[in-house]
Specification:
By secondary structure, the chain is an alpha+beta fold. It has 13 helices and ten strands. The model has no long low-confidence stretch (mean pLDDT 84).
Length: 329
């Protein structure tokens, strides 16, 4: 365990440069006293590690020092090849680069670890997009990713859901995210940081102006908070629904995840006939009508009245269509 931690400490300094004892302790999830002991051990073993004193100080390696030691375990070597998802890499224009990197990594592994990595690659395949979704056309993805990497401002013409439908924005790109097969650009417009669907970018042109990155910006942390806020903002209304237990179970397969999750969390106990009441979050009456129709006769909308009236009108229309066919026959 300690040997693995020493390797991790060494690689942290090698990849990140100067780090304080506090930062190392937080990263390794140990006490500062343990960091002091580990640094002494590395120094005693010949690793050229030294400390800069003062408020801006910390530990760092002698300039130019690199270790070939990776400390990879069998599991770690195998999972590295799970990270190489060829589809997304190709969309970013990095397919050949990924293949070359994977080949070099495979060649650098000792025999046993290389064989283990090959077994993992042969037995596990990652397919990010959801079911029944065609690939989205994202002709400007490589341009967007290039602006993110080079930290250059980006001018885009963007299609959004509200009027005016098409807008032009000058953005400071901060990152690119792949979510369920859909690409998003995280960028700052003025003082506001938000996410943009790359498929809705109609034109993109990188500018010569450098893009300032906010100090301490954490892409993964931002994305986690943004997705939570987005999901809360989408479902601004709710429907009271009486449904069968079977319909509640079926929601997990045919409904958006948030609707199915909340419906199950709000579900009461079923009556002797197998019916229960629950609250289902909806975006609007129109969206709720479309989604809840999937449950057919296994669900009855009780409220709001506008949504119930829509179902009544739909039922009358279906009856007129199908019963008239029977009567005419």
């Amino acid at each position: 365990m300690r040997a693995s931690r020493l390797v991790s400490l060494l690689l942290l300094l090698q990849t990140r440069g100067r780090m304080t004892a506090q930062a190392l302790a937080e990263e390794l999830e140990v006490s500062i006293r343990t960091v002091y002991r580990d640094v002494d051990s590395l120094g005693s073993s010949g690793v050229p590690i030294y400390a800069d004193r003062g408020p801006a100080g910390g530990y760092q390696l002698l300039d130019g020092y690199r270790t070939r030691l990776t400390g990879l375990t069998g599991d770690e070597a195998g999972t590295l090849f799970l990270a190489g998802v060829p589809g997304p890499a190709a969309e970013l224009g990095l397919g050949s680069v990924l293949a070359a990197a994977e080949l070099k990594l495979r060649a650098s592994l000792p025999g046993e670890l290389a064989d283990r990595a090959d077994r993992v690659r042969d037995r596990f395949h990652l397919d990010a997009p959801g079911w029944f979704r065609a690939d989205e056309p994202t002709p400007y993805l490589a341009t967007v990713a290039g602006a993110v990497w080079s930290e250059r401002m980006l001018q885009v013409r963007y299609r959004r859901w509200k009027a005016p439908r098409e807008v032009t924005r000058t953005l400071a790109p901060l990152g690119v995210v792949l979510k369920a097969g859909r690409w998003y650009l995280v960028a700052r417009s003025g003082e506001r940081v938000t996410a943009y669907r790359v498929v809705n970018i109609l034109e993109a042109e990188p500018l010569d102006e450098p893009a300032d990155r906010p100090d301490g910006f954490d892409l993964a942390g931002f994305w986690q908070e943004w997705t939570k806020k987005y999901e809360r903002s989408v479902y601004t209304a709710e429907a009271t629904v009486r449904m069968t237990v079977e319909a509640l179970d079926r929601m997990a397969f045919v409904f958006p995840p948030e609707m199915a999750r909340v419906a199950r969390a709000n579900a009461g106990e079923p009556d002797p006939d197998g019916w229960l009441r629950t609250i289902v979050p909806i975006e609007s009456v129109k969206q709720g009508h479309i989604e809840l129709l999937k449950l057919g006769a296994d669900a009855e909308v009780l409220a709001p009245i506008e949504l119930r009236d829509r179902f009544a009108a739909t039922a009358r229309g279906l009856a007129n269509t199908y019963l008239s066919d029977l009567n005419s026959g």
